[in-house]
């Protein structure tokens, strides 16, 4: 009798690794754009975000704080898009199209060169440190706000977005939100490796 043959098991694909050696600016931007597009998977569907049946006044201050923190973690990309939309509308209605394009370009630089960059940057065959990148982005941002005179408009748009986020975060019931094990364990709701719905204790 021939021994039963077993099918070879597929080896899991290792996660992408990033080099610690400075690479060219074009490659850095390309990888940052990949990180940016992959972050869109965190965007929650609008029917879930705008589910009116899930809105109710919080019964207590502690419940309101819990709701806000849980909603902020769960809908963080939705809130970011909401704040960005308020800023864009403010610049569109109260500033010139040039200011909107200028501020949008600066914001894009922040995304690809700072927030979503994981590789060291090489510019003109010289290593650019993170401190230098941050200082350069801050200087360019201040220059853009001073040139366009849009600081007040930008602050107003962010304030409007923050107000909408706060109302949503405090009044959106968080007990029906889906959490995977990694998110729940990172927030201390369950022990690592524990299965089950962390909201059953409420």
Automatic annotation (TrEMBL):
Keywords: Membrane, Transmembrane, Transmembrane helix, Transport. It is a multi-pass membrane protein. It is found in: Membrane. The keyword NADP does not apply. GO terms for cellular component: endoplasmic reticulum; Golgi apparatus; membrane. The chain crosses the membrane at residues 75-93, 99-116, 128-146, 152-171. The keyword Cytoplasm does not apply. One of its GO terms (biological process) is vesicle-mediated transport. Its main location: membrane. InterPro entries: Prenylated_rab_accept_PRA1. Belongs to the PRA1 family. PANTHER family: PRA1 FAMILY PROTEIN G1, PRENYLATED RAB ACCEPTOR 1-RELATED. May be involved in both secretory and endocytic intracellular trafficking in the endosomal/prevacuolar compartments. This is PRA1 family protein.
């Amino acid at each position: 009798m021939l021994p039963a043959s077993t099918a070879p098991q597929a080896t899991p694909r290792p996660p992408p690794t990033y080099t610690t050696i400075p690479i060219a600016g074009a490659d850095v931007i390309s990888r940052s754009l990949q990180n940016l597009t992959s972050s869109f998977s965190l965007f929650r569907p609008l029917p879930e975000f705008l589910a009116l049946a899930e809105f109710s006044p919080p019964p207590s201050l502690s419940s309101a704080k819990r709701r806000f923190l849980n909603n902020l973690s769960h809908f963080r990309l939705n809130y970011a898009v909401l704040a960005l939309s308020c800023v864009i509308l403010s610049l569109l209605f109260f500033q010139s199209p040039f200011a909107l394009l200028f501020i949008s370009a600066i914001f894009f630089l922040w995304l690809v060169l700072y927030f979503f960059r994981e590789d060291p940057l090489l510019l003109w065959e010289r290593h650019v440190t993170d401190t230098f990148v941050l200082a350069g982005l801050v200087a360019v941002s201040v220059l853009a706000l001073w040139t366009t005179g849009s600081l007040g408009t930008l602050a107003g748009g962010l304030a409007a977005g923050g107000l909408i986020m706060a109302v949503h975060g405090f009044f959106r019931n968080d007990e029906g939100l889906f959490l995977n094990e990694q998110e729940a364990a990172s927030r201390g709701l369950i022990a690592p490796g524990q299965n089950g719905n962390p909201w059953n204790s409420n």
